[in-house]
Each structure stands twice: as structure tokens, then as C-alpha cells.
Automatic annotation (TrEMBL), chain A:
It is an enzyme of class 6 (ligase). Its EC number is 6.3.5.-. Allows the formation of correctly charged Asn-tRNA(Asn) or Gln-tRNA(Gln) through the transamidation of misacylated Asp-tRNA(Asn) or Glu-tRNA(Gln) in organisms which lack either or both of asparaginyl-tRNA or glutaminyl-tRNA synthetases. The reaction takes place in the presence of glutamine and ATP through an activated phospho-Asp-tRNA(Asn) or phospho-Glu-tRNA(Gln). InterPro entries: Asp/Glu-ADT_sf_sub_c, GatC. Keywords: ATP-binding, Ligase, Nucleotide-binding, Protein biosynthesis. Heterotrimer of A, B and C subunits. This is Aspartyl/glutamyl-tRNA(Asn/Gln) amidotransferase subunit C. It comes from Pseudolysinimonas kribbensis. SUPFAM superfamilies: Glu-tRNAGln amidotransferase C subunit. It comes from the Bacteria. The lineage of its organism: Bacteria, Bacillati, Actinomycetota, Actinomycetes, Micrococcales. Belongs to the GatC family. Gene3D superfamilies: Glu-tRNAGln amidotransferase C subunit, N-terminal domain.
TrEMBL record, chain B:
This is Aspartyl/glutamyl-tRNA(Asn/Gln) amidotransferase subunit B. SUPFAM superfamilies: GatB/YqeY motif (SSF89095), Glutamine synthetase/guanido kinase (SSF55931). The keyword Ligase applies. Residues 363-433 form the Asn/Gln amidotransferase domain. Heterotrimer of A, B and C subunits. Keywords: ATP-binding, Ligase, Nucleotide-binding, Protein biosynthesis. It comes from the Bacteria. It is an enzyme of class 6 (ligase). Pfam families: GatB_N (PF02934), GatB_Yqey (PF02637). PROSITE patterns: GATB. Residues 434-443 have a biased composition (Basic residues).
Length: 92, 452
């Protein structure tokens, strides 16, 4: 499980790290599982605490970032493009 | 894979039953993006000023930024759902689809998962021989497009050899509707034709709704084609379970959809008949060779770790809004075809010719711009289709209906001979020339525009 998550996150883990994280992940899952002690079948699944729906905005353009602002946090840039190391894979 | 590794199409159909499925992504042409008020580059009124110019903190997923849903995008999605004969969910919600790839800066895509806005519909598509085939629709859901990557360096320039990638996030956040079919059975020998006709019908629908520019060469409409084969059941036996499917990504012209489906049927049949098994994977379509090659192994839905998007509330459209959108739907494609054929005075054969070339909208718009139907048909299915074929492009990418109507008018008024007109069309198609305008026509057009 830890190894699978690491591969999804594109990070490399050595044996020691896998062992350490296995313990930590287990503890996290156990902690979250306590929710099921109070969540009985008559409690509906809730993703948001406030009973609101359909908050939308008008389709009107607003201000955009300049390329300078947009690229301020870029690890690297090439002209006005973000430059990233190549990743084996493909667009989704 | 070499052509030798393909089974003859008829032979493949004798041994196996093809089962199809399509995912079509439609970029909506709203003024702004799905979750931010950045101008939407899928609307050609928003001229792109260069990479990374049409973005806000939301599109980059900067800390502290929050998405807000574009009301018009929701209305467009509902209209599309209704046009596909779908039910509209009283409550639907967004979900995060997590994946690590730099085409989205925030490492997840906002999509919809278990509660799409539209579900359970069907679309009637008409094949070249006039047969009507019903494609069952599972769902249509809202999501955001990803940015564009350009892979640079490497020995071959292919993705695997790239040394780095350049990212332009202008497309990130463009409103998308993804239309997913149910497994399509019974297409048989028509399977490639059904694929082509389905994508063509979706294109006609979104254009008639006015919700997308639907230009495939610009990526406004993108198709992933799923194909699987299962052995034919002998008489009296239950049908075999579904075979393993492949998903051929980014098949971006109607002709390619037809070719890709045919290719996958032939490729899979050859492997299965030789005792092999199909790997569940995504495959890349290569326009130049007309083949597919393996991409990544298909991720399980689990791998995307979908969960409800905590930054957005459910979408609960007012039933009155749904009914008013339903009332405003344009006529169904089949009804429209009948009306157009009658008003144009085409023979069945002439009309089929236009329809099968996927040029119905182009001819309609050219006629609306003032050209005689027979002339509009002649140019689109003749000279322009020929040029498009030679350039391996969609006819609509070469010239606009307005330009065609101008040229027709110039021929009519005697300002151009037929031969000169062909040269003008060729020049416009090659990007060398602008269509000349007769002063008379330009004036009458502007008065018509005002009258509208």
C-alpha cells in the first residue's frame, strides 16, 4: 500500500522509509476509523456542513495575472513558459 | 505494429463481436473558465496574447485561491445533457481527481465522479447508408481542462526521450463536459462508421446549441475510443463476458475515429486469435501511420483517490431553469436533417453526400450567409473537401462558410470565373490569401447583420 501510494505520488522510498511510513499510515487510518464509531447508518454522508447549494458567478472576465506574476513561483522558466523536468507519462 | 499483425476486418468480425465505448470531451465556449474569471481560450473572441497570459491564481492552484462555479457553464452543461436525452441530477457535486502531472498545477483536476450533472440518455446517429443507430449515454459531467505541455529535447523528440517540458496553463480550467457512453453493442461491421457518426452527431449537437466552437483541429472536441472484442457465442449459449478493452486517446478527427476503431478491432483480433491476451491500457493514435501504440497501463479509478471537492457546494439547479433550457433546445438532429433537405431541395443522394462528409453545418452556415444551397454543396463537397483530403485536415479548418459565400457571390456577379474562384479557395485554404469581397455583397451582409 505504501509503495503503491509512493508510485502514485512519484516519489522514491527506501526500505527504511517504507517501514516507518507503514506504521504511520496505519496509525492515521486507525485514527480516522474512529469516525465510524459515531457515524451510524442513519447519519447521511456529508461533504459540507452548511446546507447551501449552487453558489455560482456570472460569466464575466476579470483580471488575470501577468506572465511575470504567474511565473514568480515557477521552479524554472523558459521565456513565458513554466519549465519542468520531463516526466515519463502522458497528459491525462 | 506492422500491418501484417492485423487480422482482416471481415474475418475479425466473423470470430469476434466488437464492443465500443466513447468518451468525448467538449470544451465549452463560455467567456470565462469553469472555476475562475480568466478569459476562456476555447472562445475565439478571447485572443491569446501568449503563453500563461489567461490565468488567475485559481488556475494555478495558488494557496488561498478558491474556485467559484461559472453559472453559464452549468447552464450549457444542462442544455447538453438534455439534448443527449439525459436526466438532470437534482443535486450533483464536484470531486477531486488526484494525479501528479504538471499539466495541472494543483495536482488534482476538479471533475465529477459519483454524482454527475446529467445521466442516462441516448443519441440517435445516422450512418452513411441512412441506417439510424442508437448510442446509449451513461453520463455527462462537468470538469476543467488541463494545461498544455510541450516536450523539448531528447534524441527523437518523442515523449520518452524528452529532457524537459514547457508548460502553458492558459488551457487549465477551460470548462469541459465529458460525455461517456455505455458499452455499445450490436454495431458489428458498422463499428467504425458508428464511431465516426457518433462524434459527428455530438459535434452537430454542441454547435447547434451554441455551447462550443467544436473545432476538432483546435481540440475543442476530443474523442477517446474504447474497443474490446469478445468471442461470438455459439447458438444456445449465453454471450461471453466482455473482453479486455483498450482506450485509444486523442483521436481528434471524425475520420480518425473511424480508422482507429477499425485498427483496434483488427489488432486485437489478431492477438486473441493467436491465443494472446489484450493488455488493459491507453493507446496513442498516430495520424500519419494510422496505427496505435501502447501508452500507460490504465489506472484504476481507486488510484485517482476521488473525493468530494471541499471548496465547492453541490449544484442544485432550479427545476424552472431546467424546463426553460429544455424549451429552448434546438430541434433534434434527425428532424433538422429532414427540414434542411427539404428547404435545400437536395436529392437524398446529394444530401447524404453532405451529411457523410460531415459538412452539414458548413453548408447550412454558407447558405445562411447568402449562397445558393447547390453552390454551397458544390464547393464544400468538391474543391474544399479535395483540398482538405490532400492536406489531411478538416474542411472547416481551411476556410470559413462566410468566405465561401463571398466567393460564390463573386462568381455569380461575374467578378470571378469558376477557375479563378478555385484558385482563390486554394489560396485561402493555404493561408496565402484573404477572400476578396465584392462591395455589393459586403454592404448587403452588413445590413443583414444589423437587421438581426
Amino acid at each position: 500500500m505504501v509503495r503503491h501510494l509512493a508510485s502514485l505520488a512519484l516519489i522514491g522510498l527506501d526500505e527504511q522509509e517504507v517501514e516507518r511510513l507503514t506504521g504511520q499510515l496505519g496509525a492515521i487510518v486507525d485514527a480516522v476509523a474512529t469516525v465510524s464509531e459515531v457515524a451510524t447508518p442513519d447519519v447521511p454522508a456529508t461533504s459540507h456542513p452548511i446546507p447551501l447549494g449552487t453558489v455560482t458567478r456570472e460569466d464575466v472576465p476579470g483580471a488575470t495575472l501577468t506572465p511575470e506574476q504567474a511565473l514568480a513561483g515557477a521552479p524554472e522558466r523558459d521565456g513565458d513558459f513554466f519549465k519542468v523536468s520531463s516526466i515519463l507519462g502522458e497528459e491525462q | 505494429m506492422a500491418k501484417a499483425d492485423l487480422m482482416d476486418f471481415d474475418k475479425a468480425l466473423e470470430l469476434f463481436e466488437p464492443v465500443l465505448g466513447f468518451e468525448v470531451h467538449v470544451e465549452l465556449s463560455t467567456k470565462t473558465k469553469m472555476f475562475s474569471d480568466a478569459p476562456n481560450p476555447a472562445n475565439s473572441e478571447n485572443v491569446t496574447a501568449g503563453p500563461n497570459t489567461q490565468i488567475t491564481p485559481v488556475d494555478l492552484g495558488l494557496p488561498g485561491s478558491l474556485p467559484v462555479v461559472n453559472r453559464t457553464a452549468v447552464e450549457y452543461s444542462i442544455s447538453l445533457g438534455l439534448a443527449l436525452g439525459c436526466s438532470i441530477a437534482a443535486s450533483s457535486r464536484f470531486a477531486r481527481k488526484n494525479y501528479f502531472y504538471p499539466d495541472l498545477a494543483k495536482d488534482y483536476q476538479i471533475s465529477q465522479y459519483d454524482e454527475p450533472i446529467a445521466f442516462e440518455g441516448s443519441v440517435e446517429v445516422e450512418l452513411e447508408d441512412g441506417t439510424v443507430f442508437t448510442v446509449p449515454i451513461e453520463r455527462a459531467h462537468m470538469e476543467e481542462d488541463a494545461g498544455k505541455l510541450t516536450h523539448v529535447g531528447g534524441a527523437t523528440g518523442r515523449i520518452q526521450g524528452a529532457e524537459y517540458s514547457l508548460v502553458d496553463y492558459n488551457r487549465a480550467g477551460v470548462p469541459l463536459v465529458e460525455i461517456v457512453t455505455k458499452p455499445i453493442f450490436g454495431a458489428e461491421h458498422n463499428a467504425p462508421a458508428v464511431g465516426k457518426a457518433y462524434v459527428s452527431t455530438i459535434r452537430d449537437i454542441v454547435r447547434s446549441l451554441g455551447i462550443s466552437e467544436a473545432r476538432m483541429e483546435r481540440g475543442n472536441l476530443r474523442c477517446d475510443a474504447n474497443v474490446s472484442l469478445r468471442p461470438r457465442a455459439r447458438a444456445g449459449e449465453p454471450p461471453a463476458p466482455l473482453g479486455t478493452r483498450t482506450e485509444t486517446k486523442n483521436v481528434n478527427s471524425m475520420r480518425s475515429v473511424e480508422r482507429a476503431v477499425r485498427y483496434e478491432i483488427q489488432r486485437q483480433a489478431a492477438i486473441l486469435a493467436a491465443g494472446g491476451s489484450i493488455t488493459q491500457e491507453t493507446r496513442h493514435w498516430h495520424e500519419d501511420t494510422g496505427t496505435t501504440s501502447p501508452g500507460r497501463p490504465k489506472s484504476d479509478a481507486d488510484d485517482y483517490r476521488y473525493f468530494p471537492e471541499p471548496d465547492l457546494l453541490p449544484i442544485e439547479p432550479d427545476p424552472k431553469l431546467i424546463e426553460s433550457l429544455r424549451a429552448a433546445l434546438p430541434e433534434a438532429p434527425a428532424v433538422r436533417r429532414r427540414r434542411l433537405r427539404e428547404s435545400w431541395g437536395f436529392t437524398e443522394l446529394e444530401f447524404q453526400d453532405v451529411q457523410n462528409s460531415g459538412l452539414l453545418v458548413e453548408v447550412e452556415e454558407t447558405v445562411a450567409a447568402g449562397a445558393a444551397p447547390a453552390q454551397a454543396r458544390k464547393w464544400w463537397t468538391g474543391e474544399i473537401a479535395r483540398l482538405a483530403n490532400a492536406q489531411n485536415a478538416e474542411p472547416a479548418a481551411l476556410i470559413t462558410p462566410l468566405a465561401v459565400s463571398e466567393i460564390v457571390a463573386l462568381v455569380e456577379s461575374g467578378e470571378l470565373t469558376d477557375r479563378m474562384a478555385r484558385q482563390v479557395v486554394e489560396g485561402v485554404a493555404a493561408g496565402r490569401a484573404r477572400p476578396p469581397r465584392s462591395s455589393r455583397r459586403a454592404a448587403s451582409r452588413s445590413s443583414r447583420m444589423t437587421a438581426r
